[in-house]
Amino acid sequence: MTLVPFSRISSLRSLIIDDMPAMRQNIRMHLGQLGITKVDQAGTPDEAIRAVQGGSAYDLIVCDYNLNKETNGQQLLEFFRTQHLLPPTTMFIMVTAESGYNLVASAAEFQPDAYMLKPLTASKLADRIERLLDKQNALLPINEKLKRKDQAGAVVECDNVLKVAPKWIVDILKTKGSLLIELRRIEEARAVYAQALEMRDDLVWAKVGMARCNIVAGQYADAKVLVQAVLAQNSQYIEAYDLLAQIEDAQGNQQQALDALARSSEIIPSARRSRLVGDAAYRVGDLDQAKEAFDKVLKHTKGSLTAQPSDLLTLAQVHIDTGDADAALALLASAPKRYAESKMFISTQSAVAAQAHVQLGDMISAEMAFEAARNAAEGSPSEMATLALAKAAFSVGRDEEGAQLISQAVKSDHENKTLLALARKVLADCGKETMTDELVDGAVKQCMGIIAEANSLMRSAKPDESLAKLEEALHSMPENTGVLMAAAQLHLLWMSQRGINQEYVKRVNRYLNTLDRLIPGNDRVSKMHKFLRDAVAKAAQKS
Question: Where are the 4-aspartylphosphate modifications (predicted)?
Fold first, then answer.
């Protein structure tokens, strides 16, 4: 093909991921024909992860689907997306020799921007990249609003872009529907999905969008009918299983929720899918299924950067709960050396080891492990470590300390239903069910009382005392989403009445950034981002 030396393609920074050196060189040659000179290469998933984590902002990633027995290209893409390692503008092209990959891509929760069948040519690559760049440029006004966390503005831009670039109507409607759900504008979202289904009545994503609308509206029975209809049409569609699990869980059917997640894991047997199954199985007390799931996770991620310390720790805890202390200690001893850099890991590892030593009758080793766990937990609290330490405290007979730790864990995020369920499970496993009302429900009431008192002070024209109350609470529970929400909201209310306070602007930004990390995509947080942004802009105009 004829090289266009100063085309927009030639400036792209690219990464090639393929386990075959000859294929990497072949793809690099094709990219070179397009004028692309900034090209890095990775022969394994770990090399690819290091390249992405190394700070290079790649515009284009070309990845082979078949990488190795443990991790394929689809699972690597899933890891990149779930860990938020790729910016939205990175184009991810999957390369495969398998004509059936389209079934995998259509079923997957995380889809590549494009996939291409081998053999590749420079002209085919150019055509695909040009199309992706056209799409990226057309949707730029929408994405610019999203960068600023302005969902409402992005919805407006969806309509504007649709007028000038109707060829991207499917992508625009998908984006607009999701944004409207985030903004809780459910009837508008339904209209968007209805518009899509009028175009084509077999659009699975639009039917799933309708189901999501029903879930947000609390219409679980209607949502379930829609999801089951989707699965009858396409039994491989992963997002439908996730929604089914969400519906069942909301209705208190934890076993049915687990069954839905287990079926999705059979379709795409990735580490993340197995992890979801393992966590759900552990919460409902199905230790055999939890063990099987986390065994799969460790197998998928063995020796890889995709491995997560929590997987090994949870499996070790499962061994303890099934009475296999020796297996738990052996697993803990097999932990990679790099895990020792984490205080959370050391604390949880020692807490689980303490429980194992108690089971083996070695109380001296149990006490030593418990002290190590407690020392490592100081200054770096985590929900997992705190709950494991509480279980260890009860195991070594320190009931008062165990009770304090349960209360501390719940107060760290009293609106987290999963955390509350795990706290109750610790008490049940340790034979302390009678403490549940006092420790779990009592801690929840205490947190709610702090928020209620702060609101009352604000209504009583004591705003400074109100804000001070919440700031004090956040010192002891800095990641409590309920308290963070209240603190952000009341600080914004104060500024709406008294004007911009730069110290409070910094505080609210800190609260909202923490909430973005803890509960990404939350609509209330998005609205507060917009409120703060508008208030600051208005104050700047006046000055």
Answer: 64
Q: 145-176, pLDDT tens digit by residue?
A: 988 888 889 999 999 999 999 999 999 999 99
Amino acid at 245: A
Residues facing 94 on adjacent strands: 63, 115
The answer to whether 328 and 308 have CB atoms below 8 angstroms apart is no
Asked whether the bond before 269 is cis by omega within 30 degrees of 0, the reply is: no
| CA dihedral for 166, 167, 168, 172, sign (positive or negative) | positive
Task: Choose the CATH number for 14-137 among 3.20.20.140, 3.40.50.2300, 3.30.450.20, 3.30.559.30.
Answer: 3.40.50.2300
DSSP 95-125: EES-TTHHHHHHH-SS--SEEEESSP-HHHH
Distance in angstroms (rounded) separating the CA atoms of residues 144 and 153: 10
Neighbouring residues of 543: CB distance < 8 A, sequence distance ≥ 6 = none
CA 72 to CA 199: how far, in whole Å?
A: 35
CATH 1.25.40.10 assigned to 446-542: yes
Q: In what order do the strands lie in the sheet with 60-64?
A: 39-42, 14-17, 60-64, 91-96, 114-117
Rounded Cα distance, 350 and 371, in Å: 8
Question: Strand, coil or helix: what is 397?
Answer: coil
Helix axes 204-216, 186-199, angle to 10 degrees: 160
Q: Please give the Cα distance from 525 to 448 (Å, whole number).
A: 19
What span, in angstroms and rounded, lies between the C-alpha atoms of 426 and 135? 50
Kindly state the DSSP code that residue 341 receives in the 8-state scheme.
G
Q: How far does Cα 435 stand from its chain's mean position? A: 32
Residue 103: its pLDDT value, please? 67
What are the Cα distances from residue 404, in Å, to 322, 346, 384, 399, 408?
26, 20, 15, 9, 6
CA distance 328 to 488: 43
Cβ(161)–Cβ(170) under 8 Å?
A: no
How far, in Å, CA of 315 to CA of 318, rounded? 5
Contact 17, 63 (CB under 8 A): yes
In the structure encoding, which two tokens stand for residue 435, read together? 């403490």
Is the pLDDT at 4 greater than 60? The verdict is no
Position 107 confidence tier, pLDDT thresholds 50, 70, 90: low
Query: For every residue of 121-165, which 3-state class applies, written as one string?
Result: CHHHHHHHHHHHHHHHHHCHHHHHHHHCCCHHHHHHHHHHHHHHC
Q: What are the extents of the domains in the chain?
A: 14-137, 446-542
